[in-house]
């Protein structure tokens, strides 16, 4: 897909699978408009029957009596009105269903594409802007496909059909009737070009407004605790005002379209009325034909005033389409891998060889890291905040791609492994616990969706969570709220541990897994971790040294490098950074003396 293509062309390219439905809906729209234009012709024939009687058009087809002609005309009218209604029902249903289907598929495609993006993509964009694309912009496309596409087809059909009838009846009058058309089309193009940048700005302001709302709703506790309600209301007012002002510019231009077009239409209508009337008086045009032209010129020109609304929808849709297509065209930088990995066959041997990494636009955070983790052993990584500990876990899970070196699992470079298989083999318990709005059961079973209640309870018991869960109002059926806001930090962390236990991965990564629990709960969790880390490769990242003192090997990080390693006892004897940290945390050394 070529990003330089017009947004509509890019949208059509993305929706080729709907060609059959598009043709069906288009055919129904065209047929409906053809039958919709028939009544003025029928009125003209009726006038011709009354005036000409035995010399009317129908009389030439063998219907001599005027009564017979009128009865036949009534029968044809009934048939035409029935077909018009039938095709209106058909096109309305087809276009609306098509709009819903495209909306549905586009939203899923866009969201699926987002899920494939690396974490750096989300760090550079706000969730509010992305939500605006997934909801508002895709809904805007649905509204255009629901009404605008049909409107364009029907206006085009009207021009072709009525133009053909006029040329057949009175070519001279047709020139005056059609005279406004080039000016209307030219005016439409001018309006379209001027509206396009205005609606692009509208969509941008809408995204910023959504960003503000999403951030404020997520940070409501902080807003309240700092009594910043008035401050945030004012910031929202300014963003909403900017959105209103950008819309006002677009509205001022689009609202001028219809009044200007009406004046242009007036020339075509009066030209048909006067010139056609002169021709009928002079006998060069049948009265019935003149009646048809007077009725049809309104059916031709007045619907063109709706082009303003249609163009308005079109430009909004194109601005939205541009944003949606840009999202879909965003490059996926994490290669999915191709080698199949069966979690049950994973031994869990890990190697980091000369691994270097830097977050986008920032200094290198990991410098040629070498790390060997034997299968089924527990290693711990400690160090100051910002030393790069958690980054190692993110690189292992391929949330980011390394910039140098390589990472191997059981002797295979992890970028060769299928991404889904790699992550299925690793259980992560992060210090930033995320719980979904749902029940306790749903959150523990997340990722292991086929788990039974008994298995969930067993995992909760191992994570020292079963006791507090049973004290909740509905036990395992208690809804935890968005991001688990109804639970304490320690409770959320224990649910996260239970979720990892239930997954039963061959590799377990604990990133500050006990940072939000009290000493008693930490001791309980340590007992359970001692069980679940047996026969399982475990990487424990921690600030609390008491949680990792029994690890098979401990690595101390400083400024993106390993500066010490050994067992707890060996590092204490070394009297280095680890020893100082241990003395501070056990109360043997004031923190001010820490180097």
TrEMBL record:
Domain ABC transmembrane type-1, residue spans: 23-316
Major subcellular location class: membrane
Membrane topology qualifier: Multi-pass membrane protein
CDD domains: ABC_6TM_exporter_like
Keywords of the record: ATP-binding, Membrane, Nucleotide-binding, Transmembrane, Transmembrane helix
Subcellular location: Cell membrane
A Pfam family that the UniProt record links to this protein: ABC_tran
Gene3D superfamilies reported in the protein's UniProt record: ABC transporter type 1, transmembrane domain, P-loop containing nucleotide triphosphate hydrolases
Gene Ontology MF terms in the entry: ATP binding
Keyword Membrane: yes
Highest rank taxon of the organism: Bacteria
Residue spans crossing the bilayer: 175-191
Domain named ABC transporter: residues: 350-584
Name this polypeptide is given: ABC transporter ATP-binding protein/permease
